[in-house]
Amino acid sequence: MKRKTYYEQLKDPRWQKKAAEIKEMRGWKCQVCGDDTKQLSVHHSFYKRNTYLWDYPDWSLRCLCGGCHEHAQSEMEAAHEFIAQNGLFSFLAILSNGTCEESALLQKILWDVSMGYSGDKEVLLATLNYVSTNMVDSYCQGLDGKK
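RE: above sequence
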């Protein structure tokens, strides 16, 4: 059976049900700005190859209004670019090749850093370096036996 495209998955009843459940869990309001009057979408905080949209854990899905969703997407892209430009390739390697848990951890870190990022690239780089050397290495060592 041919795998569904991303856009086909968006139309799938399983995704429609999951998205409605996430919006309900989040109180039908944007998790960033709190607006409850705008149209909402469900944002995946990470993507994993060969995983259907509805198979992600609830905690990894965010309910966002259009403006905050667009901002979150551009911030995540900027964070990935920043990582690549600053030689933090272990992050990108784990994001693209690691386990779902590893990817989720790194995407959460990127989300938290990017949503609170005030423009000081030195602080962002220091935070990512700290996480890279202290948290990610020990986390992944703990998962080595579980792969």
